[in-house]
Amino acid sequence: MKLFRELWESSTKSLVGLGSVVRFLGRLLICSPRALLRCDLIVQQVYNSGALSRVIIMLSGLFVGMVLGLQGFQLLQRFGSEQALGTAATIGLVKELGPVITALLFADRAGTALASELGLMRATDQLTAMEMMAVDPIQRVVVPRFLGGVIAMPLLAAIFSLIGIYGAQLVGVQIMGVDAGSFWSQMRAGVSIAGVNEGIVKSCVFGVACSLIAVYEGYYATPTAEGVAQATTRTVVTSAVVILFFDYLLTTVFL
User: Fold this and answer.
1) pLDDT (0 to 100) of residue 29
2) In the chain, where the domains are located
């Protein structure tokens, strides 16, 4: 009986939390049109979330592409299809690895930064001071950070995929001896617009999810040092689970 009661309480708490996140997303969407008039704030947040994350994205994309080139060559060599390495690497990066790994890295770097920043603003009563001055903190602080993350995520995913393709080409052509013309021609012939669109849709959905979780956890963080730390941890854990769930869901829809 105790087990069922705990399961019921846990399920109820999860549903309440989900409803709170949905309501918070609604407030962000309502405030977004007015926030777009302050382009300088959004550009600054795109820089903070995107440009400052480009180094880890590019390095990760390069090494993931190189590993994909090695593993793909070894696998395709068994079937005498080494020339299809460009197609295999590009499809894997554009449709799957690019959006997913970029989103995980985005949550680790930019998501934690957003959550901790908003959490510290809550802990130091900066958000409360805005409310006392009749300034909506969601309109002025939260929405630009949310939109900045949403815009930056697809751009970072594109950079990751491009650098990853270069890494696969570097290993496959320069090291393994795959013909360069075959690599690029097979890639162009094998990658369709639908596959590129799938990667774009995934990166946009992941951007909304990661940014929403980060600003939500930071905005409602307990105003203590421990509360900010817990909000940052929840941001990473929840974002990772949500990314993988949506990845499976979207892959199923596209298939």
Assistant:
1) 87
2) 45-254
